[in-house]
Design brief:
Ferritin, 150 residues
């Protein structure tokens, strides 16, 4: 398979999947009614930030896939994507803030695990996850704060 077709596939799966899940689980009246911490960003920030992050995630996954499709780094990449795609339905769909907190902590662990493992074979792929790790750490704090306040 052409490597750039594979890259396009990674982008479609990650950006497309994340966008679809985001669209299907938009914050609604329930979320609007929650008590929020002072550092809660406005809703319009999330779409552009996640779009950029999903492209970085896709490129990192593609780079690791080119090196070792069945290795531990690729398995961690898949795990983080599963946790990522589970968070919005858990938080917004099921309205389970505490359960979503567990999901996002698992997501953060998978992200750091991927970064540590990927760094051994592809430092660029590992560094592509740095903004993602920072944002998910912030989102974890936000999720924990929402759980605490509500």
């Amino acid at each position: 398979m052409n490597r750039y077709v594979a890259l396009l596939g990674f982008i479609v799966v990650v950006l497309g999947g994340g966008s679809l899940i985001g669209y299907l689980t938009l914050p609604g009246e329930w979320y609007a009614g929650l008590a929020k911490p002072f550092f809660n960003p406005p809703n319009w920030v999330f779409g552009p930030v996640w779009s950029v992050l999903y492209i970085l995630v896709a490129v990192a996954g593609w780079r690791i896939w080119l090196r070792d499709q069945h290795g531990i780094a690729m398995r961690l990449w898949i795990a983080q994507l599963v946790f990522n795609f589970l968070w919005s339905p858990t938080f917004f769909g099921l309205q389970q803030i505490g359960l979503a907190l567990l999901v996002i902590v698992a997501l953060l662990a998978a992200i750091f695990g991927f970064m540590a493992t990927a760094a051994k074979s592809d430092r660029v792929a590992a560094w592509l996850f740095a903004p993602y790790a920072a944002w998910v750490a912030f989102a974890s704090l936000l999720n924990a704060s929402l759980w605490w306040l509500n």
